[in-house]
Amino acid sequence: MKLVRLSSAILFYVARALALGYLAILAYLLASVALRLPSFQLLDKKRFVIYYPFTQTRFLLGSQYTAAYLTEMVLVLGVYGAFFWLLGQVFHTFKQPKLFTQAGIGRLRAFCLFNLVVPGLMLGLMQLLATGEDFPLGLVFMFHTVIGVFAFFIMSIFQQGVHLQNEQDLII
Question: How many domains does the chain have?
């Protein structure tokens, strides 16, 4: 069990770093476009580039400068920021001394629902936006559905564990 706690602790920090990275990129994208910062530049053929702060090194390159394309970028960055944040919460559950808790079930439920609901909504919205990007949306949807189903199974195991733990506490 020590190995699980150690691995979970490491993965918690990795997931948190990824979440904060995605959310920081999202904030930088929004600030650069909305405020027309010097890091933002329009290119020919309705394309755009966002440079690393205080440099002329390209950071993000947009193939279209349209509301639909920017919405797609914002959604993808925001959804994956949230995904990694919730994944970090799941790893946080596994590094706790007491494994089967209501808080752990809540974290697993949030992760499960996110993976079962949000990708479907994203798929529908991306179809409406139809920016023409070559993005394997169906594959991403299936990937998240599988993760959501596994999270549901783990959540069910945790619910049973809490139930058994409560029964044992009553007996003692």
Answer: 1
In three state form, how does the secondary structure of the chain look?
CHHHHHHHHHHHHHHHHHHHHHHHHHHHHHHHHHCCCCCEEECHHHCEEEECCCCCCEEEEECCCCHHHHHHHHHHHHHHHHHHHHHHHHHHHHCCCCCCCHHHHHHHHHHHHHHHHHHHHHHHHHHHHCCCCCCCHHHHHHHHHHHHHHHHHHHHHHHHHHHHHHHHHHHC
Q: Are 155 and 108 in contact (CB under 8 A)?
A: yes
What is the structure's pLDDT at 41? 94
Q: What is the mean pLDDT of residues 41-62?
A: 92
Query: Quick one: average pLDDT of 22-37?
Result: 95
Domain range spanning residue 9? 2-171
